[in-house]
Design brief:
By secondary structure, the chain is of the alpha+beta class. It is 37% helix and 18% strand. It has a nine-stranded mixed β-sheet with strand order 1-6-5-4-7-3-2-8-9, covered by helices on one side. Strands 16-15-18-17-20-19 form a six-stranded mixed β-sheet. Helix 8 runs parallel beside helix 11 (392-398) and helix 17 (504-518) crosses helix 19. It binds adenosine-5'-diphosphate and magnesium ion (MG).
Length: 630
């Protein structure tokens, strides 16, 4: 042991920690009670970790195997201590775990807070953990002794500038001498209510009742007594559990503070026995779009917490939270081997099917509730369309879409039920925003025929739509790719009146002229069957990436994608006029007009002209000419 670590050593907080602490002290939470839940949940995690490590190393228990959490209010000293005989922390762990901000949750919290400008209900989604204790404490002393170690260490901080770390007497490491951690809070003047036994009991019942370890209240001079139920809620039968208990279990399993949108609770018996308690959160968890796409369903084996990283559900269900408790998975299997364990594989498969079936039930029982679920998590669920070929059909049934038909979300079953006569395909347009899609020229022919079009705005939509899948035998078809011919579907009465089809012969010269003028800036120029009002539009050539996907890919890796096709509306008077002019004046004027048309089509796609300065110069020349000032 290096000698200077034997004395007290001061460490400044990183800037981020200071900021977070400042926020905590100035109470971003309206509800200060949650600090107790956070500390109890840490104590419970520490007991879980010890119990897991003791499977391979029983000596770590050192004869003290009744793992528990003790709360000691000391009115005379004005302190509240939360202690556990769990895994404990050594010196380095105290510094790293309590003094830095490496945890993704905390970092995400700060980022969201910045976005939300410091004042938002969003904040409620985050468990800020240990630091929340500074809401009620002016000073915190954490004494800890790692299981299996003879040393104890004390970490102290006033939550302002930094912390100190110094050796402690191992025999006095909190209330639990064998090992573990004691967190002693010197309560602020306005937080002394948390010393009242009744108050502590109320908070524990409300937030931590179903922590699996006993939580004992130890008022000096009185016998300790257990104040939580400490039972695994998922082991009880459904009709014994109240909605409040579910909500509470949800909150203590997940650290979320919203209400679950859906609760799934059942026991599987048969080839394997396991209990399942899963929740779909009401709001998006902060880590939903983390690149690792990890789920957080906790695996227990016969009530022993093993890991929340066993991949118990596919990534596209990563928003589902909760616990699965197996009777059959071996306890001593390493965490790394779990993912490959066939029993775990069977559980994953069966539970995935069950979750999707429950979602179907939810959708038919409560369409409104289901719609808001889909608004919250649909983007993630749709990843399954791409990844889970075996469940595609089921997932397509679960998907909801914005379409050109009004503002509600539509299922594909509804879409197919309102197909127009002769319509054999499911049409869609994929892009970035609903407003822009709804205003796309590519929609015109469909609109003129009253054909409904799916408007897809999630990046994942670009990927599953190209897989060639069908719904009830109808293929999906992009309106911004290849040639789309809706002419076999009859026009609505309104559109019939306005329809003035051009003769192909009229446009042949024009198309040739434009082709020659644009050269390899486009893959092709052709007369459009999808435009009724607009002059031009761009579409992707058949076989390559759709326009939206192309834009997405270009952003990541600009370069070699096939150029778009320029479609012109042969029925539009401007096109007729341009055709006439090109026939009269020839090449130079054709080039000028062709470039302008192409830029116009680009702008309609939300892009910028290929050469903005050139575009403006050309535009100005045209205006001068129009004003007769040439
Ligand atoms: P989280 O629990 O989300 O990881 P916290 O801020 O609550 O974040 O705690 C930070 C870390 O400090 C924990 O991950 C754990 O490693 C450590 N820790 C906190 N309390 C205890 C405890 N009672 N026993 C052992 N380790 C603890
Ligand atoms: Mg915690």
């Amino acid at each position: 042991m290096i000698s200077d670590s034997r004395t007290e050593e001061a460490h400044p907080f990183l800037a981020e920690v200071s900021r977070l602490l400042h926020l905590m002290v100035n109470s971003v939470y309206s509800d200060r009670d949650i600090f107790l839940r956070e500390l109890i949940s840490n104590a419970s995690d520490a007991c879980d970790k010890l119990r897991y490590d003791a499977i391979a190393h029983p000596e770590l228990l050192g004869g003290e195997d009744r793992l528990r959490i003790t709360i000691v209010p000391d009115r005379a000293a004005g302190t509240l201590t939360i202690a556990d005989n769990g895994i404990g922390m050594d010196r380095q762990e105290l510094i790293e775990n309590l003094g830095t901000i490496a945890r993704s949750g905390t970092r995400a919290f700060l980022e969201r807070l910045q976005q939300a400008n410091g004042s938002s209900g969003l904040i409620g989604q985050f468990g800020v953990g240990f630091y929340s204790a500074f809401m009620v404490a002016g000073e915190i002393e954490v004494t800890s002794r790692r299981a299996g170690s003879g040393d104890a260490w004390a970490w102290r901080s006033d939550g302002l500038s930094g912390f100190t770390i110094s050796p402690a007497d191992p025999q006095s490491a909190g209330v639990l001498p064998a090992r573990g951690t004691a967190v002693k809070l010197s309560l602020k003047e306005d937080a002394r209510a948390f010393l009242e036994p009744g108050e502590i009991e109320r908070i524990v019942r409300a937030y931590s009742d179903h922590i699996l370890f006993p939580v004992e209240l130890e008022v000096p001079g009185q016998a300790a007594r257990q104040i939580n139920t400490a039972s695994a809620l998922w082991q009880r039968s459904r009709n014994e559990v109240t909605p409040q208990e579910y909500t509470q279990a949800y909150r203590s399993l997940t650290s979320h503070i919203d209400e679950p949108a859906l609760t799934i609770h059942y026991k599987a018996e048969g080839r394997q026995s396991y209990a399942v308690l899963l929740f779909i959160p009401g709001q998006r968890p902060y880590d939903l779009f983390d690149p690792d796409r990890k789920g957080r369903v906790k695996l227990y084996v016969r009530r022993v917490f093993i890991t929340d990283d066993a991949g118990l559900l596919p990534a596209y269900l990563r928003f589902v939270r909760g616990a699965i408790d197996s009777e059959d998975v071996p306890l001593n299997i390493s965490r790394e081997m779990l993912q490959k364990n066939p029993l775990v594989g069977q559980i994953r498969n069966a539970v995935t099917g069950r979750v999707l079936a429950e979602l179907e039930g939810f959708a038919s029982r409560d369409p409104g509730g289901y719609q808001s679920f889909f608004q919250t998590f649909g983007t993630v669920l749709k990843e399954g369309l791409y990844e889970d070929a075996a469940r595609r059909e089921q997932l397509l049934k679960l998907a909801r879409f914005r379409t050109t038909q009004g503002s509600s979300w539509r299922s594909l079953a509804e879409y197919v039920a309102s197909l127009r006569p002769n319509q054999t395909e499911i049409y869609f347009l994929a892009g970035e925003s609903l407003d822009r899609l709804a205003a796309s020229p590519q929609l015109e022919a469909a609109r003129a025929r009253g054909v409904e079009v799916l408007l897809l705005t999630d990046p994942i939509d670009h990927f599953w739509t190209v897989l060639g899948m069908k719904f009830e035998g109808r293929p999906f078809r992009s309106l911004s790719q290849g040639e789309v011919d809706l002419t076999s579907i009859s026009l609505t009465d309104d559109s019939k009146a306005a329809d003035t089809p051009a003769k192909d012969a009229d446009v042949k010269g024009l198309i040739d002229g434009l082709r020659a003028a644009l050269g390899d800036a486009v893959t092709d120029v052709r007369a459009s069957k999808r435009l009724t009002e607009s002059v031009v539009c761009l579409v992707a050539p058949r076989g390559g990436a759709d326009l939206g996907l192309d834009r997405l890919l270009q952003r990541q890796q600009p370069g070699a994608n096939p150029k778009p096709v320029l479609e012109v509306n042969p029925g539009h008077p401007l096109i007729t006029a341009i055709g006439r002019r090109i026939a009269e004046t020839g090449k130079e004027e054709a080039a000028e007009l062709a470039r302008l048309l192409l830029d116009e089509a680009r702008i309609l796609e939300g892009e910028t002209p290929a050469d903005p300065a050139d575009f403006v110069a050309r535009m100005n020349r045209m205006m001068l000419r129009a004003l007769g000032a040439r």
